[in-house]
Amino acid sequence: MTTPTLPPTAQRAAQVPSVVLAGATGALGLLIAHHLRRRGATVRALVRAQSNTGAEAESLRLQGAEVVVVNYDSVADLTRACQGAGCVVSALNGLRPIIVDAQTRLLAAAVAAGVPRFIPSDFSADFSRLPEGSNRNFDLRREFQRHLDQAPIQATSILNGMFMDLLTGQAPVVLTGPRRVLYWGSADQPLDFTTLVNTADFTAAAALDATTPRYLRVAGEVASIRDLREAATAATGHRFRLLRAGSLGLLGTLIKVSKALAPAPDEVFPPWQGMQYLHNMLSGQAKLAGPLDNARYPDIRWTPVREVLARGQ
Ligand SMILES: NC(=O)c1ccc[n+]([C@@H]2O[C@H](COP(=O)([O-])OP(=O)(O)OC[C@H]3O[C@@H](n4cnc5c(N)ncnc54)[C@H](OP(=O)(O)O)[C@@H]3O)[C@@H](O)[C@H]2O)c1
């Protein structure tokens, strides 16, 4: 009996891994798409109708991604979009309607389409050991995780700590004006930081790796508040000092007050949620446990905090 031989183009098509990427127009999603293409994958980017004509969708097309408009309320629509993929990656961002509801429909679609692997939109500190209520956004991720762990699909969560890029923007920790590093609790608690680019590159590599475990943990740098002070001093050439605002108990009280004064229930990252994130990290409860998986894809060079702070000058 002879084995049928595919024509060369069909052989190539059969070898190129295909990844479905939800949330591809987002900050992280665009970078994951870039790194998937760079690593030779076919990318099917799922976008909502209102995002289809935007600059981000255009940029995805220019990168060679197939942009597919989907209705996240329709499992049938999502199932069609998932056909033939080797992995579904979600970089969706939002609250319950997205992280729990839309991702659950995307998961059902991936299973129905026979996709073997799913990477949820976790991309965070380790939320698995946190008490319920200590971080609204992490509660939603644990809720989705319960659906994911019941589904007949191989799941991999990528845990990367805090996006290092936030240190020069939204996260009020390294204060360049007064040259202080602001913190609560202990200045010696190790904290995990990874850049968006490193997270995206690692996620792309993981999406193309059929052997990933349930969790992959990475950190571009593990740094304490004291280490951040050293990094800020080295990056700027100016001496930074520590500014301890109080205990973690005080930060907990500030979170309650801030939430009561400005609840912003529809905002994904209101100030009180950012403070919850800081509390989770500074308490050590969201610290990535066990050995890191940084070396899994040896081509990735991990950006240290000092480099990001120097860039933010
Ligand atoms: N570790 C950290 O420090 C950190 C910091 C920030 C974010 N993150 C995480 O990184 C992941 C991606 O975040 P991001 O900042 O890249 O997100 P983003 O830029 O805000 O948006 C991601 C995508 O979410 C989709 N989306 C928004 N609202 C939606 C809705 N109502 N229905 C369906 N899709 C909707 C959009 O898809 P369309 O293409 O359809 O518009 C958008 O492209 C999230 O898990 C987020 O929590 C982590």
UniProtKB/TrEMBL annotation:
Domain NmrA-like: 19-241
Keywords: Membrane, NADP, Oxidoreductase, Transmembrane, Transmembrane helix
GO MF annotation terms: oxidoreductase activity
InterPro entries named among the record's database cross-references: NAD(P)-bd_dom_sf, NmrA-like, NmrA/Isoflavone_reductase-like
Keyword Amino-acid biosynthesis annotated: no
Gene3D superfamilies registered for this protein in UniProt: NAD(P)-binding Rossmann-like Domain, UDP-galactose 4-epimerase, domain 1
The keyword Nucleotide-binding is assigned to this record: no
One Pfam family hit: NmrA
Regions that span the bilayer: 12-33
UniProt-listed PANTHER family: CIPA-LIKE, PUTATIVE (AFU_ORTHOLOGUE AFUA_1G12460)-RELATED, NMRA-LIKE FAMILY PROTEIN
Name this polypeptide is given: NmrA family protein
Protein species of origin: Hymenobacter rubripertinctus
